[in-house]
Design goal:
Hydantoin permease; transmembrane helix; transmembrane
């Protein structure tokens, strides 16, 4: 929890600093980054962000697919469990989970064609449904655990002194890496204020639910789909099936909204920034969705070590981009842009 608080606090500061210029001058990332890198040099930064967003879209779609698998199991029961696995172990995914991945992919695909001004309604519904589902599962776990949250002891070794420093730094980096695409996307979805409390609350809910559920199930589950699946297995019945279905549906809706706002829209904006003659925002979003399955996200997050490696790999690209934009805006230019010059490579332009 301490790592979550520290990581979220740092993120909140970066988000605010990286939002100010876009809010003031009303420009998106593909234009905003030209101030720091130049009209031509910005193409490298745009391409990097688009590439990372496609991969992030793919991994989020995998999460959605796993939750879809749980929801389908809650609906069809043994009919879903009975789907034979015809894929080799080396595939890193079972046949039914691969099917669920493409079911989720098809369900979220129409969102590519919804205008961003209309998407705000999706975020409102998502916030209500997801919050209700998270608190519902937490309440059930606490009730089944005798009214207690549990010990928050997840079986790890106790560390102190210098042995604690590097694991703590790694934990803070993991928290920041999970949300770092949001930092770069701020010029596209700039907001004047950012709530630290909301981010810490979500992380507390996950820890508290895992702790309470561990006292009931006898094991700690950190993937929400594994937890929901274990609840179905242990407490199979109409009540558990209905509850897990609605909880999974809320999380699925959250992932659809995250993919739309943090991944596909930025890819669409980047595509139109790189090749405006051929790609508009909608076409860029469709390209993002079509590329996602080819990223084989189930391979990327097959294990905890590979997932942390994945998180660290794109942080290497995105965090320096954030740093360059912040220093350029706040230190070098002191908050002053000449917006018309951001759209031209004419001789004498400060951004040519």
């Amino acid at each position: 929890m301490l790592a979550a608080v520290i990581g979220s606090a740092i993120l909140s500061v970066v988000v605010v600093l990286n939002s100010r210029g876009a809010t003031r001058y009303h420009v998106g990332f593909p234009v905003y980054v030209r101030a720091a890198a130049g009209v031509s040099g910005a193409k490298l930064f745009i391409a990097v962000r688009a590439s990372v967003a496609v991969i992030y879209y793919a991994t989020q779609s995998f999460y959605g697919g796993m939750l879809t698998s749980v929801a389908l199991r809650a609906i069809f029961g043994p009919g879903w469990d009975g789907i034979p696995d015809r894929l080799p172990a080396s595939a890193g995914i079972t046949s039914k989970n691969l099917l669920a991945f493409f079911v989720f992919w098809i369900v979220q695909f129409p969102v590519m064609f919804v205008h961003p001004t209309i998407l705000r309604h999706l975020f409102v519904v998502k916030s209500v449904a997801t919050t209700a589902g998270l608190f519902g599962v937490l309440g059930w776990a606490v009730r089944m655990n005798g009214g207690e949250l549990g010990s928050f002891d997840f079986g790890g070794a106790s560390l102190a002194g210098s042995a604690l420093v590097w694991p703590m730094i790694q934990a803070i980096n993991s928290v920041m890496a999970a949300l770092c695409p949001i930092l770069v996307n701020q010029p596209d979805v700039a907001r004047p204020l950012v709530s630290l409390v909301s981010k810490v609350l979500v992380m507390f809910l996950s820890c508290a639910t895992t702790s309470a559920a561990a006292g009931v199930l006898g094991e700690s589950y950190w993937n929400v789909w594994d937890l929901y699946d274990a609840i179905l297995t242990e407490f199979w019945g109409p009540g558990a099936r209905a509850g897990i279905f609605f909880a999974s549906a809320g999380m699925i809706l959250a992932i659809v909204a995250t993919n739309a706002g943090s991944n596909s829209l930025p890819v669409g904006a980047d595509g139109s920034g790189l090749w405006p003659r051929y790609i508009n925002i909608v076409r860029g979003q469709v390209i993002c969705a079509l590329l996602a399955p080819f990223c084989v996200p189930w391979k990327i997050i097959a294990s905890a070590s590979s997932f942390l490696t994945f998180l660290g790999s794109y942080t290497v690209f995105l965090m320096p981009t954030c740093g360059i934009m912040m220093v350029d805006y706040w230190v070098i230019r002191r908050g002053n842009f000449h917006v018309p010059s951001l759209y031209t490579k004419a001789e004498g332009s400060p951004y040519a």
